[in-house]
Amino acid sequence: MALIISKCNRQTRRSLRFPKPLRVVDSTTVTVGKNRLPWAPYHGERAGVKLHVAYSPESSLPADVVETIGLRHDGPVGEQLTNAQQVLVEDRAYFKIERLDRFVEQHQLFVIRMKDNIELHQKKSLKRLSSTSSSVQADFTCQLGTKQCRSTKRHRVVIFRDANGRDIRVVTNLFHASAETIADMYQQRWTVEVFFPLGEAISECPDLVWHDGKCGIQPTVCGVHRVCVAAMAV
User: Across-strand partners of 50?
Assistant: First the structure.
């Protein structure tokens, strides 16, 4: 079976490795001179818009893009990018305890990095096969937060060590996947970083037209720019 899977293309291999397709959610800020976007002030002499992207590692393409001014926080916009048919993979900017409890009730699968200061209450280790080659440091369930603000649900927490030797804590409601698979899912988050430079490069295009006050992007007759913007699903 391993040999058969190895012969498949990248999209097929990833879909077989994970229980559901992944939906990596992240954002990038595109800045230009303030005179170009007077309705989107950012910092100092710069104006900016933010692209909130739902990215598919399986297809290596964005599935959805929401545009806002550059100073808009990620968390609220992330609510527009959920999809119950996919596993949400998100960074700490989208972490919120009540949001995780709600995802459990809504059957929205997720793998989200925890903030470093989150308290772990009543930890209970999960049984797993030990492996010297595994990057996983711990796998347990617990409630999250302090007494004043604590999750009503018990969530699974996986702690693993990344390539730089840092311990990464992620929380998930996936209980039928191995801790190594959970760690692998979160590390797919970095695939969206390959896409972000495209949006930044497009911002420097002199033929690009920005919708005044609507934070939209519209390509001109330039074929290359049309393809790039279409790829962002804007």
Answer: 29, 68
Q: How far is residue 43's CA from residue 34's CA, in Å, rounded to a whole number?
A: 9
3-state secondary structure of 97: helix
Measure the CA–CA gap between 24 and 96, rounded to whole angstroms.
17
Residue 197 CA: distances (Å) to CA of 9, 31, 193: 25, 12, 7
CB count, 10 Å around CB of 27?
23
| CA distance linking residue 144 with residue 116, whole number of Å | 12
Q: What tokens appear for 76 in the block?
A: 């609220």
Q: What confidence tens digit (pLDDT) does each residue in 98-128 have?
A: 999 999 999 999 999 999 999 999 999 998 7
Quickly list DSSP for 12-23. HHHHHHSSS-EE
Residues in the chain, how many?
Answer: 234
Q: Which of 176, 24, 194 is nearest to 93 (CA)?
A: 24
Answer for the pair 171, 144: CB distance below 8 angstroms, yes or no.
yes
Q: How far is CA 220 from the centre of its chain?
A: 30
Local confidence band at 61 (pLDDT 50, 70, 90 cut-offs)? confident
User: Can you list the domains of the chain with their CATH numbers?
Assistant: 18-231 (3.90.350.10)
User: What span, in angstroms and rounded, lies between the C-alpha atoms of 30 and 27?
Assistant: 10
pLDDT in tens, 15-35: 556 879 999 999 988 888 888
> Which pair of structure tokens corresponds to residue 199?
């949006």
